[in-house]
Write a structure and sequence with these properties.
The chain is mostly helical. It is 71% helix and 3% strand. It has helices spanning 28-32, 42-51, 55-64, 66-95, 130-155, 162-193, 198-224, 228-244, 249-298, 302-336; strands spanning 106-108, 111-112, 120-121, 124-126. It has a two-stranded antiparallel ribbon. The protein has a two-stranded antiparallel ribbon with strand order 2-3.
Length: 340
């Protein structure tokens, strides 16, 4: 192979084998390796093909509107995961109680509501007995055990202390549970008084308590999973101010450690995000290149082939550039996380 030429797999037409990327040794085979194989399941493959069209559009939007795109990303994933665990809660509440005995109302504070036919307002307990209350708490608790790692690792990409965050999440869950139980204590009394079917009551309980919890937890997450770059910026400003004011060495050293810790978390968060973005873009650009190659094979005239060859060359160079960026981001990721 002559210098400057790039090897391509045998599927690429002969007149495209001279396609090159300035000073790059990336080959078409290496480009193909960037693409995750499609599933053999036709149903899954259909949605994979739809999804693959979006990363380029999304990341282009991210580059133009970084703050808005970050908010949209968090809101969407937060909503999807929250709704997912809400469905889990409903399944538990709909299935498990079928095998539980219904007993008389038990709990605290057991305040009769005249407007609800004498049914009791209960925070800890249930009009249908302790078994129903315990079932509900199990459903909610297991849902949060699923929700916490998903929100932490995917939605907010947090690299803070997981035990500290889990502790505050648990405290928040307890407080939110007390509030939603109190709200449900009123609603449940009226639903039972109106003889609403049990499955509908379970759905209402899931939507009411889960919906309120979802809104409250969105703000709780913003506290326990703060924006690492903003935290690092504030820590740096505090450190610089102490240095400028000639504060005591003890205060300066303490502020310096806080700043370095915050910056390390920010670096990890940024490296994680940028590497994920680069991998997706490299895959998208590679798919665009091979799509161009497929169109060349189907071309019916030399003129059409010539036009498509130009597009394929451009797509190839863009793909090579994306792979090089991915490699750079991977190197940064490995360095920041101590993998090299």
């Amino acid at each position: 192979m002559n210098e400057g030429e790039v090897a391509v797999d045998e599927k690429v037409p002969t007149d495209l084998t001279s396609v090159s990327a300035s000073a790059s040794s990336v080959t078409a085979d290496e480009l193909r390796a960037q693409i995750k194989p499609l599933s053999t399941n036709g149903f899954v493959r259909f949605f994979q093909n739809i999804y693959r069209k979006w990363p380029g559009v999304w990341y282009g939007f991210c580059d133009k509107h970084p703050k808005l795109s970050d908010l949209i990303y968090k809101v969407v994933f937060f909503f999807v995961f929250s709704m997912g665990v809400t469905v889990w809660q409903y399944i538990v509440m709909a299935v498990v109680p079928l095998g539980l005995p219904k007993t008389e109302a038990v709990g605290w504070p057991m305040i009769p509501l005249a407007a609800a036919g004498g049914r009791s307002f209960i925070i800890f307990g249930d009009e249908q007995g302790w078994a129903m209350f315990i079932c509900f708490e199990i459903a909610v608790f297991t849902a949060q055990c699923i929700n916490f790692p998903l929100q932490r690792n995917i939605t907010y990409r947090s690299h803070g202390n997981p035990y500290f965050q889990a502790m505050w999440y648990f405290i928040g869950w307890v407080l939110v549970s007390v509030a939603t139980n109190a709200l449900w204590g009123v609603a449940n009394a009226f639903l039972l008084h109106w003889n609403v079917p049990e499955l509908v009551i379970g759905l209402a309980k899931t939507v009411l308590t889960g919906g309120v919890s979802m809104v409250v937890f969105f703000f709780i997450f913003m506290i326990i999973f703060p924006d690492n770059n903003a935290v690092a910026k504030r820590a740096k400003k505090k450190y610089d101010n102490l240095v400028a004011k000639n504060a005591s060495q003890e205060k300066i050293e303490k502020a310096k450690v806080a700043y370095e810790t915050a910056q390390d978390k920010a670096d990890k968060s940024n490296a994680d995000k940028e590497y994920a973005k680069a991998k997706s873009q490299a895959s998208g650009k590679a798919m665009r290149y091979f799509a161009a190659v497929d169109r060349i094979e189907k071309a019916k005239s030399d003129e059409e082939k010539s036009t498509l060859n130009e597009k394929a060359e451009k797509a190839f160079n863009e793909a090579v550039e994306a792979v090089n960026v991915k490699n750079e981001k991977e190197a940064v990721y490995n360095r920041v996380f101590g993998l090299t």
